[in-house]
Amino acid sequence: MTRTARPERLTWLLPSHLVEAAGTETSGPRGRPRRTVRDWIVDTTIFLLAAFVGLLAAETSVKYSSEPVALTDQIVGGLACCALWLRRRWPTGLAVTLSAVSVVAPTASGAVLASLFSVAVRRPFREVAWIGALAAAASVVQVFVRPDPTINVVVAICLGIVLILLVTAWGMLVRSRRQLVEALRDRALRAEAEAELRFEQAQRLAREAIAREMHDVLAHRLTLLSVHAGALEFRPDAPPEQVARAAGVIRDSAHEALQDLREIIGVLRAPGEEAADRPQPTLATLDTLVEEVREAGMRVVLDNAVTDPGSVPASTGRTVYRIVQEALTNARKHAPGTEVTLILRGRRGEGLTVEVRNPAPTGPVPAVPGSGQGLIGLTERATLAGGRMEHGPTPEGGFALRAWLPWPA
Fold first, then answer.
1. Which of 241, 276, 311 is the last residue of a domain?
2. What are phi and psi for residue 15, nearest 5 degrees?
3. Is 331 among the domain residues?
4. 3-state secondary structure of 347
5. What confidence tens digit (pLDDT) does each residue in 257-296 have?
6. Are residues 68 and 131 in the same domain?
7. Which of 331, 329, 347 is nearest to 405 (CA)?
8. Tens digit of pLDDT for each residue in 209-255?
9. Residue 391 sits in a domain of what CATH number?
10. Which end of the chain has fewer CB within 10 Å, C or N?
11. How far apart are CA 285 and CA 354, in angstroms?
């Protein structure tokens, strides 16, 4: 799986509201979310743009107004631009105040547009609508209170209203995009949680399946114990040779039963299934499985170097059988028409290795829902048996599965 960057290293690229929602940003004074680097860049850019618009208005004010009025406009415009640093904390109050100030101070027009953008980004549509209407009304009144001799009255009114509408629409577009990002993030978190639940469910079902199979093995061992112990109980006068033979069988059966039981400790058996109807495959029946899939039209190349499959422990043989069975099933579903190679190696004391490979499919492969759950169960089975299993795509585009299981000497 490809390693991704740590989330805390990317928070400077996110707005503070997304960082706060993700739970990766510390709080500033009085519990407020601290500004990220991105927030500082945005706030500085908006401040400079508002100051630029204010300077344009101040230039006109100097030409066509008295010196005291022009100086007052410049001071008010500078204060209005500085007040924009409060737009994240009080967007509505700041927009209303600046709209009222802009009626008599055209240098605050840039700050008004910036505050309207903040309101459109952070507040609901109804609040944005009446604040936008207030700013439009203030823009119309400003044309008559502080007219610009270089621009026609109708043009000035239309220009002010168009700018207000454009800034408001831009802010609402940003708000919609943020809401979409938050919705996608929540959906991704839910999908991740659901995938984790499916993984846990598949793991639990795999353990229950292993417990059901081991139940049959333990039942067989305990039956042998019961039979030979009963013979010793009802034939106390049996010859020493028979007593020794029965005791040896009891000892071997108890040892094997404890070994099987150790593999499934802590795994619960699901009720409602009868074990008598389920055959117990072993490594000796692996050839039969291969012949069955060949008769179904699948090409399988078997390279089996285990000369004495009957000497392999029953639990290990069943695990190998299930691994091969699932691997052939996956190859038939995800790579139909390809040739599957099955390699089996091992000896006593060294363990048993099984490898299944198939090349990339030549044609389109339909999507199969629930894929990957069987491999989770196989990995759990191999781990409980004291072994390990690895699987994944090959560099050529195919798929390979390799498992190792212990084979006591």
1. 276
2. -65, 155
3. yes
4. strand
5. 776 666 555 444 444 444 444 456 788 888 888 888 787 6
6. yes
7. 347
8. 776 666 655 655 665 566 667 667 777 777 877 777 777 777 776 77
9. 3.30.565.10
10. N
11. 15
pTM here is: 0.42
pLDDT (0 to 100) of residue 275: 44
Of the two residues 233 and 191, the one the predictor is more confident about is 191
pLDDT at 344: 93
- Measure the CA–CA gap between 59 and 374, rounded to whole angstroms: 75
Identity of residue 197: L
Residue 17 lies in a domain: yes
Judge residue 278's burial from the number of C-beta atoms within 10 Å of its C-beta, 0-12 exposed, 13-18 middle, 19 or more buried: exposed
Measured at the CA of 54, the angle between CA 52 and CA 60, to 5 degrees, comes to 110
Could you tell me the end-to-end alpha-carbon distance of the chain, in angstroms, rounded to an integer?
37
Comparing C-alpha atoms, which of 315, 326, 331, 330 is closest to residue 283? Answer: 315
Distance (Å, whole) CA 328 – CA 358: 9
- Distance separating alpha carbons of residues 399 and 402, to the nearest angstrom: 10
Measure the CA–CA gap between 5 and 381, rounded to whole angstroms: 33
Q: Report helix, strand or coil for 149.
A: coil
Residue of 57, 172, 173 whose CA lies nearest to 125 = 172
